[in-house]
Specification:
This protein is α/β, with parallel strands linked by helices. 20% of the residues lie in helices and 32% in strands.
């Protein structure tokens, strides 16, 4: 899994499982992100230059306080932003977390295909959960596969 630039799946349940596995493999523990971790922005904030679905790297991480963690995050252009992220965004197992206060974020090692739409990476691992999308299964799989610019690997869960 770590040999790919991005992992894409179909369900939040799988996304949480894969993110937890990768975090464990990389030596990260706990419910809040540490320096060096990959995060997914879950809500637009024009003032801060944050866009829903974009990926960031944690450059500073504070201690959790009153349900939030203060983070400094950086995008691939080295644009840095300080955010106060609700811890529930990292621990919620059933959705995007976009309705949470502050600047909701989630771990970004594995994304749902829905969040990955419009983005592209060199190498993508697709966990084929197309069966959950019944009549739209081929559209889902096409969308997931076409997120790869150079190499795609498709695996069955």
């Amino acid at each position: 899994m770590l040999a790919h630039d991005q992992i894409i799946c179909g369900t939040h349940r799988m996304r949480h499982r894969v993110n937890a596995m990768i975090r464990h493999k990389l030596g990260f523990n706990g419910d809040t992100p540490a320096v060096g971790e990959k995060l997914l922005c879950l809500r637009n904030d024009k003032q801060l230059g944050l866009h829903n679905g974009t990926l960031w790297t944690v450059t500073k991480s504070g201690l959790p306080r009153r349900g939030f963690v203060e983070l400094e995050i950086e995008d691939d252009t080295q644009h840095r932003v300080a955010v106060e992220a609700p811890i529930d965004g990292f621990t919620s197992r059933d959705g995007s977390g976009a309705e949470l206060p502050g600047q909701p974020s989630a771990f970004g090692y594995c994304l749902t295909c829905h969040k990955a739409q419009g983005s592209q990476w060199g190498s993508v691992l697709v966990i084929d959960e197309s069966r959950w999308f019944r009549a739209d299964r081929w559209r889902w799989l096409y969308t997931a596969i076409t997120r790869a610019a150079d190499r795609v690997t498709v695996v069955q869960p």
